[in-house]
Amino acid sequence: MVENQIPTFVLRKIMLQTENSMNEVRENEEDESIDRKLGEMLTRFCRGISPLGLEMCLPSEAIQRKHLLDLLYNLILGTTGPEAAPMKKNELRNDMASFLLLLLYPNIRKVNKSTFCRLIDMLSILASIVTAAWNELSKFSFMKELKERMELIFKIIQLPRQLIPRCSEYLSNDPFQEIVMIPTASKLRSVRIKLSLATAGIKTIAFDKKTATLKLPHIDLDATTEVLLRNLVAYEMISQRGSLTLTRYTELMYGIIDTSEDLKLLREASIVLNRLNSDNKVVEFFNGVFNSIGSKSTASELDQTIRDVNEYYNSTRKVKAYNLMRKYVYSSWKFLTVVATVVLILLMVLQTFCSVLSCPRLFNKA
């Protein structure tokens, strides 16, 4: 899905040409009708495939998004609205580089970082040489006819230059350097933290300290959910967004669901609707999404909620007692093992001594 995103303006042009060939209507009226129809089609499709709740969106706002995946992402996060002013050349080049990086992403993860960076450097040098040679050749009159045809090719050749800063920025961080830490659903239940259904989407995730209630949005899991989440998280990670909210949500669910018992608690709270064959597949599903995409975590709006849950969980008597035992008992297990061994040896010596010299008689004489 990620690698097959047709820009929205291209879909609009195709639809406009189709409508014009079928009937002749005044241009302004036709444009408004096409915008409305296309916007409704896109939002209706997103609502049909989305595993999470979506925000409301007007058709006029939907067609302002870059493509279908961008629309679905912003509907989930509730950030739909008209795009900013048209992109400048530098921004457009960065966007093209982002798109190329998105295509290469599944393979980048399998390649050694230094090897991949060297490959990009070599391609950049080669692109510079070819571009310089073409600039000299294009000055000759017999090359003018080919200039327009070759222009697009040389724009593509220059893409490796745009990839260098993006790849170095992305590959400099270990995707598994920060894993979200939150107790599982069964551990939360053990300290009387309740799980409740949030009123809307991801933006409404919250923890109520007074009632000890963690509110999570509803998610519908079926055969297509894993592919959708992987694409959405990958798109978020390469889009230069300040807050990786959807990535953080995936980490959150990865932390909360560890066993089928955790899933059962979420299902009872109407947070998870499982359309897969078994509960174990859901556990494998979230593990698979997290392990395949990884986490390039930055500050997220969900971080405060996670901190609040951890603070409340760690402040309960049960967890405090466990932490104290782990700190003072488990940490000194080597010393306790030595003491136990010494005591056992002394008892064996005493037993041997008493079996030979008859300890009861000695003690009675004393």
UniProtKB/TrEMBL annotation:
Transmembrane segments: 335-358
Keywords: Membrane, Transmembrane, Transmembrane helix
Species name: Eucalyptus grandis (Flooded gum)
Pfam families per record: DUF247
This protein's name: Uncharacterized protein
